[in-house]
Structure formats: structure tokens, C-alpha cells
Amino acid sequence: ANSPPPRCGRWGGASPGPGVPLNPPAVGVGCPGHVRLTHSVPAPHPESRSRCVAGRAGVSCLLRAPGRLAPRPPVLPCGPLAGRAAALLGGVAVLGAGAALARGAACCQEAASPGPAPAAPALEPDFDWAEFWTFLRPQLLALSAAIVFALGVALLNIRIPMLLGELVNVVARCSQQHLGNYLHQVRRPALRLLLLYSLQGLLTFSYIVLLARVGEQVAGSMRKTLFASLLRQDVAFFDANRTGQLVNRLTTDIQEFKSSFKLVISQGLRSVTQTVGCFASLYLLSPKLTGLLLVVMPSLVGAGALIGSILRSLSRQAQEQVAKATGVADEALGNVRTVRAFAMEDTEVALYCHEVDRSSQLNEKLGVGIAAFQGLSNMVLNCIVLGTIFVGGSLMAGEELSPGDLMSFMVASQTVQSPTPSLSLQVVRGLSAGARVFEFMTLEPTVSLSGGDQIPSHSLLGHICFQDVCFSYPTRPGCPVLRNFSLTLPPCKTVAIVGESGGGKSTVAALLERFYEPTQGAITLDGCELCTLDPSWLRGQVIGFISQEPALFGTTILENIRFGKPDASDAEVYAAAQLANADSFIRSFPQGYGTIVGERGVMLSGGQKQRVAIARALLKNPSVLILDEATSALDTESEQAVQEALERAMAGRTVLVIAHRLSTIQCADLIVVLARGCVAEAGTHAELLRRGGLYAELVRRQATEQP
Ligand SMILES: Nc1ncnc2c1ncn2[C@@H]1O[C@H](COP(=O)(O)OP(=O)(O)OP(=O)(O)O)[C@@H](O)[C@H]1O
């Protein structure tokens, strides 16, 4: 009855409406002087209040701490089939045949087992064999040895049924002819069998160890390369892909690929060798019985392939549904404070139950399919065993076949049939998982992380110009956010951008950080176009960015501050913290700078987090500082501490302030009102008030909204 609300668009931002560009001239200020920001009007803008709740949930943060999901335990290849021969001696060939299919069924079941949310791309990417080869090549020696050992096991599996037949013949002869020296007669074939079993055990141990090593090395390198590749991608890439999907590629997909790879080498190679070898042995044992098998086998394999493809598709649907359910849980748990704040626990539980129920239905359907497949296969395989005994018995009666040959035939024919169903399913799953991993591994970002010119620190002024910049987000190419936007930020001056929500203020900061490239126009730093400058130098040494919702990592305060400059000494960290007004509160903690801040800094207050973030930004001593609504999420008391820190931090730097609370930017050298993607008004606070335009209207509105 309580059908849950659709999830799409829950966190979606409003798209900008069509705007009329005003095309104002480029604006700037020239008078030098120290700037102090005041905070005389503490009343928050209503938008700021709403951000205070949503922002804490991490919805609008620019930086996110990477999620960590524990990988599933590795799946070892299935064991050899040698035990089956002994079982057959006791006349339980039926169970042996069923066991092989049960493994196939188990693989299907595992396929549908819960895991982290997988990616759901519209089109399945192709598997990149060339890329795969680069990971495999360093492991070639170990892999070759593993293959040789696995082939050795396969050859022994062909040979063992023959020896079993010989042993049965000896046993039959002894019992028929009542030979007294039974032990003497069976000793030789039994010892040979024992030797082969031992060798088979040793080879099996060796190839599994080697394959585990190769699998881990390949998977490890793939994980490292994929992670490095993901971190290199453009910010737009992260707009388009959910974190859960990306983490899934790093964990589940690589795990799946590794399991399939190992299974293909261990079982696939063995089964091909065994099938060819066993058919040859079967033909030598009895051409007539082999002919019978050849008539039945193709139809069995065909039917198996058909049912297998239906099961695979069901398995994929079930896996996607499980991922959907996991996604709902992931989102709710990740935003638990927002869920709590809105008393949405029951709705979230209902939503999760809905997805889990659908997943259970699909998995039950899959279970029915697997059961039918297994039941039918068991019946057919047992009929083959029965047919073999029936036809073989009549051949034995005509003395065309010995009991030992019949035994060998039955064991060898089971070896041929066993590995097929689970393997084909696993190969398909492994290839699609591998294709998803390689898809992002080979993706090249449009802006590389490093490379380009650097301005020597002694001549760096921090003079920034936006010249007729037009911009649309790559995920919304038809919606222009900035239209012929022009602005100059003179060195060591503070320029504030104000305007309606969604007007493009944060976008200006994102372009300056080169998170995105302008669609048209240019941005220059001291006359050099940003696109010619080294992005890692620009972000690492020139620009300090402090956002409304600072993203901290779940480690110590010291390490969080040092994130701004990894080679900074402890003394430098303490100095930055003092400048950021953070040193005293950090030292008041029992562990001081060694205090763990919790996931995304959850164990610190908003104001404390912000001051740690300011210290982190100041540690690199940036020439340009961007403050993106840095105090709007704070209460008056915290704001005061942060504001003091910011004022100290701004001295002697070019500063771009994005503000909602107009009270905080009254002393800026230049205030720019952004409307519909371009500069609608520009001037000092006093000038703009005198003009009585948009800015004056904003000030008036904020004043009346004060409690
Ligand atoms: N990553 C993104 N992908 C697509 N569109 C975006 C993205 N970020 C912002 N937008 C859109 O761009 C427009 C400008 O957003 P921006 O965040 O720059 O506005 P703003 O003036 O800073 O707003 P606010 O004051 O509410 O923070 C909005 O319509 C928003 O929906």
C-alpha cells in the first residue's frame, strides 16, 4: 500500500532557466590595501539554513572521502575429479555426475549473491584483450608452469580410468578363478594407481598455488591501475558516475574476473584436454559404446547451452536487482543523518524491502531454473550410465568388452561430461566483468593531471582574468551556466561574487580550479592561459580552495592538515593551524593533533572541520584563495572563529569569495552580482547600494529576512 517514492532526481539540482545575457564589460579594481571582512549582520540567508542540513549529509560537497568496501574472499578453483572413480567402483556414478552439475548450480547461485552495487552501463563494453595481455605478461612464467601442471592433472585423469579398469580386471579374474595370491596380483596395479593419485595430488597442489599467485598479482595490478586511472579522470566523469559503481569495479568486478580467469585455466584447460584424451581412450576401449555416446552428447550439450543461456540472463537480472537493493541501503546508511533528521527511517526500510523482495523473486526464479536444469541433467546423465551398463553388459556377454573396460569407460565418460555448464557461465561473467574494468582503465581524461608551464614563484602575482567565458556542464550540454562571463581579479585583492542560487557562482570557482574547461573564452593567470599551465602545480601550489562543506579524511587531524603539503614538517602544520584559529581547539583534545576525526570528519563540529580545512589550504601558502561559502554552514559562534581565521588567511593573496551572507563581503574590493550566467552589476558595497539595483535588492531582502 505504501509504495515507495521513485529515487531518481532525489538529489538532482535545478537546471538554469533560459536567461538574457547582459554582456557587461570586464570589471576590476585597482586600489591596493588590506581587506577586512565584517560579520556585523549575523542573520543567515534562508538558503544557507537549508544547506546547513543537506550540506552536512555530504550532498553538495566537492571533495569526497573514497568509500572502502571489503573484497569478497577469493574463490579457489574446484578440485580434481579423481575421487569420483572410487565412488563409481561402489556403483554411485549417479552422484558423481550430479556433483558436477551441482557445481554449475552453485556458480549460478553465487552469481546472484549480494555484493556492492555494480555498474549498470547502457551498453556492455568489449573485453580489451591487448590491455589484459599487459597484466598477464609479467606472470607468464608462473602461468606457463601452472598450465603445464594443470595439463599434467588432465593427462592423469585420462590415464587413471584405464588403470582402474586394469585393477577391476585383476579383481574380477581373482574372484572368478579363485586365485590364492590375491594380494600379490593386485599389488602392482594398485601401487601404480596410488603413485598416479599422489602425483595428481602434487600437481593439483602446485597448479592451484601458482594460479592463486598469478590471479592475485594480476588482480592486484589491475586494481592499482584502475584506481590510479579513476583518480586521473575529469571531475565531469565523477558527475556522471556514482561512487558505488566505481568502487564496484575496483572490488566485485575484479574479483569476478580473477575467479573466472583461474577457473578457465584450471578447469577449462583440463576439461578440453580431458575431453579430447578421454574420447580417444573411449574409442580405443569400445568404438561401439563411443558411437552411442557421440549420438547422445551433442543433443545434451545443445540443450545444456540453451538452458544455460536462459539461466545466465536470469542470473544477470538477479545480480542487477541485488545491486539496486544494495544501492538503496548504501545511500540510506551514507546519509543516515539526513534520514534521521527527516524521520524517514520507515520509508527507507520500505524502499529497501521493496527492492529486496524483487531481488528474492528473481533469485527464486533463478533457483527454479537451476533446479530444473540440474534435475533434467541428472536424469539424462544417469540414463547414459544406465545405457552404458545396458549396452556394455551385452558387449561383455559377447566377450567384446571386459568388466574392467566397462569400468574404465564409465569413469572416462564421466570425466568428459563434468566441467561444461559452470564453466560457460563463469566465462561469460568473467568477460563482462573484465570488460567493465578495462573500460575505465583505458579512459583518457580531457585534462591531464600534470604537464604544462609553471610560473616561477618569485614572479607569480595572482592576477586572474575571465575573458568572455561561456560554459555548460558536460552532463548538461544544452544548459549554459556562464554566458560571456568576464571578470578580473587583481593581485592581492578580494573579489566577491553574489547572486541568486544556481546563478553559477560555484561554477566560476570550479573553472578557476580547472575542474572543468570553458566551452568558450579564456581564463588567464598573470597573462598565461590556464590551459597552458600545469594543473597539478596550479592546484597544489597556487590555489587554495575552501568550500562550504569541507571534506576531511577518516584519519588524524595532523594527517588531514598535511594533505595540503605532504612534505610539510610538524612545525609547519602547527603554524598553519595557528593561522587558521585551530591550534587551541586541537590541543584541547586528549590526543591533540593525533585525534582521529572519523569518517568525513564526523567527530568534529562544523566550525572545527572548517578550521582544519583552512589550515590544510594555508599549509601550501597559496597565492590565490577561493572561499566558496566557507562560513554559510556555520552558526554565529563558529562563524566568528572561522571568519577570523579567514581574514588572516586572506591577507596578501588574491581572493575569490562566493557568498550568500552579504554581511561577510561588505569590505571586498569588488562585489560582482552574477545573474543568469553573466555579470549583472559590479562595484564596491557602497557603490552598489547607491545604484539601487540587484545588489541593493539582495541586501534589502536579507535584512528583512533577519529574525
Ligand atoms: N556538476 C554539475 N553538473 C551539472 N550541472 C551542474 C553541476 N553543478 C552545478 N550545476 C548546475 O549549474 C548551475 C549553477 O550552479 P552553481 O553551483 O554554480 O550555482 P551557485 O550560484 O553556486 O548556486 P548556490 O548559491 O545555490 O550554491 C545550476 O543550475 C546547477 O544545477
From TrEMBL:
**What is this entry's stated membrane topology?**
Multi-pass membrane protein
InterPro entries according to UniProt: AAA+_ATPase, ABC1_TM_dom, ABC1_TM_sf, ABC_transporter-like_ATP-bd, ABC_transporter-like_CS, P-loop_NTPase, Type_1_exporter
GO annotation (BP), single: oligopeptide export from mitochondrion
Q: Where is the ABC transmembrane type-1 domain?
A: 145-419
Q: Where is the ABC transporter domain?
A: 464-701
Q: Which Pfam families does the annotation name?
A: ABC_membrane, ABC_tran
Q: What terms describe the molecular function in GO for this protein?
A: ABC-type oligopeptide transporter activity; ATP binding; ATP hydrolysis activity
Keywords on record: ATP-binding, Ion transport, Membrane, Mitochondrion, Mitochondrion inner membrane, Nucleotide-binding, Potassium, Potassium transport, Transit peptide, Transmembrane, Transmembrane helix, Transport
Localization of this protein? Mitochondrion inner membrane
Classify the main location: mitochondrion
Q: Which Gene3D superfamilies match?
A: ABC transporter type 1, transmembrane domain, P-loop containing nucleotide triphosphate hydrolases
Q: Which residues cross the membrane?
A: 140-160, 194-214, 291-311, 379-398
Q: Which SUPFAM superfamilies match?
A: ABC transporter transmembrane region, P-loop containing nucleoside triphosphate hydrolases
Q: Which family does it belong to?
A: Belongs to the ABC transporter superfamily. ABCB family. Multidrug resistance exporter (TC 3.A.1.201) subfamily.
Could you tell me what this protein is called?
Mitochondrial potassium channel ATP-binding subunit
Organism the protein comes from: Gopherus evgoodei (Goodes thornscrub tortoise)
